[in-house]
Structures are given as structure tokens and as C-alpha cells.
Amino acid sequence: MSVANADLPLYGELGMTFMQWPQVTNLERSDAEVVVTGVPFDLATSGRPGARLGAAAIRQASANLIWEGARWPWSFALDDYLAVEDSGNLLFKHGEPQTLVDNLEAHIGSIVSSGKKALTFGGDHFITLPVLRAYAKKYGPVALVHVDAHTDTYSGGSRYDHGTIFHHAVQEGLVDHEHSIQLGIRTSYTVEGHPFEVLDAAWINDHGPTATLERIRARVGDKPIYVSFDIDGLDPAFAPGTGTPVVAGLTVDCALKLIRGLQGLDLIGMDVVEVAPAYDNAEITALAGATLALEFLYVLAATTHSLGVHK
Q1: Residues comprising the binding site for Mn(2+)?
Q2: How confident is the model at residue 15 (pLDDT cuts 50, 70, 90)?
Q3: Gap between the Cα atoms of 114 and 109, Å rounded
Q4: What are residue 278's phi and psi, to 5 degrees?
Q5: CA 19 distance to own-chain centroid
Q6: N or C of the chain: less Cβ packing under 10 Å?
Q7: 208: nearest Cα among 260, 253, 269
Q8: HEC profile for the chain?
Q9: What strands, in cross-sheet order, belong to the sheet with 225-230?
Q10: What's one GO MF term for it (predicted)?
Q11: Which residues are documented as binding site?
């Protein structure tokens, strides 16, 4: 695949890395097991713009998480068991979305082909589509665990649209929809013929994380799992800084328990998208995004090394 040149790469400069981890400059020589990438893109939004600054906000908010060392409730320090590096922000021609598609698929492809996992910060949710294309080239159709207020399976929309990504992912055979599940949904969609199992926010809020995890595990089985977390899956009380907020969502506590409960499954990657700091308040949305991402990394380490949490 040809990679577009990124003349005048807006938002390409990296203010700080996620968790102040090292910045990787050569993926082939890197010993990292997980590579972080920021994608400053929000041209596919249908609501309020601003998610192009989400990756920078998440990295900045991670400064609040660094001091803890061994994060509660885990019984170990992540750095002792998992090597993570930050590749900075993806470069592409802003205003030309196809360069984002080409460059992001190629970049994630280079991460995955080198035996590493990708942790990707949006940007709007459209970025997940080229990421899944890269993953599918190695793994075939993956199981998707998708947290969101919206199903993003709408067949209409433009070529670049954050509301159509999982429609295209199914059509292109990127996800195994029979082993995929959507969580926290609370907007309308066509139920008849819907390709994914859906646990809406009301069901999860009524039944709790334990029952939800039972359904997740039964659905995904032993398939390679990609986690896509739209921050608007959280209730706006916990994540006001997003483009399409919807009330009556998940709590951060519930979301963290769901991520933590994925320990032992075949997790291959994750994205956190739709953080829009212009609408945030005291960095609480960015902090939620950073914390969810860090929790995912702890789950990867705990799964690999059979580690646990304090009882």
C-alpha cells in the first residue's frame, strides 16, 4: 500500500507520551509489546467536532496516573511485566481523509506484523475501520467488543462517516459478527437483522458488570478480540467531552470492571475514541479515557503472566 506524504502535518508534534513511556521511532527495532498511536482526525463526525485533539488530551490526563506505580487494584506494577512505547501521532494530509485511511492502515499493519499490539487514541470513531482492516489481514475476522451509545452500523452516510464503520466492517469481513457484542447502546437502530448481539445501557445498568461479562465471554469464546471504546458509551456525567453525548450511559466504575473482566481472553488490540476536550470539564473525560486504556494494558500483562488483583 502506498503511504501518502503528510505535508504540513497539523497536530503531528507530540507534547508528551502516554504515561511518559518512551517514544518509539523504529518499530522493527523496538522491544515494545504494545505501541500507542494518536490519530488527530475528526472529519468524519456527525455531531460536534474536536476529537482530533482527543489523543493529546488523553496523554496529558495520563500524568494523573503515573505517580501510582502499581495501579489499584492490581497487585503488580505494569512496567515490570509489559513494555509499552508511544509512536506519537499519525501523520496524514488534513482535509484529505483518504490519506488518513491509507496511512493509518499501513501504520497499524506495521505494528501488528511485527508481533506487537496496537493501542490507538482517536480521533473520531471512523479511525477504527482502517485499524480493523490492518488487523484482519493478520487475524482474519476478529471478535469485536464495542462500547458505545450508538451501534455505528448505519448503512447511509458519506464515504467517511463515524456512524457507518461497523456496517462496512461486517460487509468487508473484518469482524466475526457472530462472536461480537455491542455494549451500552441507547440510541435507535434496526433490530431485525442486526449483525451483533447488543446489551443496551439499561440492561447493563440493571444487571451489572458480572452478568454482562458472562454474556461477553459466552459470545466471544476463544476468538481474537479487538476492543473499541467510544467514550460516549459512558454517561455524560462521567464523560461530557465528546461529540455526541447521550444520557443514561455506563459509569466509569462499570466500564473499568468490564475491561478488567476480560482477563484471560485473547485480546489483540484496543482503541479509545471520540474524546473531544473542548467540551470537557476539568479533564474528566480525558482522564476516563486514559484510565480505561491503562486498565486494558494491565489486563494484557495480567493475562500473559497470570497475575491478579488485591483481594
Answers
A1: 125, 148, 150, 152, 230, 232
A2: confident
A3: 8
A4: -65, -25
A5: 16
A6: C
A7: 253
A8: CCCCCCCCCCCCCCCCCHHHCCECCCHHHCCCCEEEEECCCCCCCCCCCCHHHHHHHHHHHHHHCHHHCCCCCECCCHHHCCCEEEEEECCCCCCCHHHHHHHHHHHHHHHHHCCCEEEEECCCHHHHHHHHHHHHHHHCCEEEEEECCCCCCCCCCCCCCCCCHHHHHHHCCCECHHHCEEEEECCCCCCCCCCCEEEEHHHHHHHHHHHHHHHHHHHHCCCCEEEEEEHHHECCCCCCCCCCCCCCCECHHHHHHHHHCCCCCCEEEEEEECCCHHHCCCCHHHHHHHHHHHHHHHHHHHHHHCCCECC
A9: 84-89, 34-38, 117-121, 267-273, 225-230, 143-147, 181-185, 197-200
A10: agmatinase activity
A11: 125, 148, 150, 152, 230, 232
Q: Say what percent of the chain tops pLDDT 70.
A: 95
Adjacent-strand bridge partners of 37: 120
**pLDDT tens for residues 77-136?**
999 999 999 999 999 998 899 999 999 999 999 999 999 999 999 999 999 999 999 999
Q: What is the pTM of this model?
A: 0.95
Place of cell 467536532: 49
Beta bridge partners of 228: 146, 271
Cross-strand bridge partners of residue 200: 185
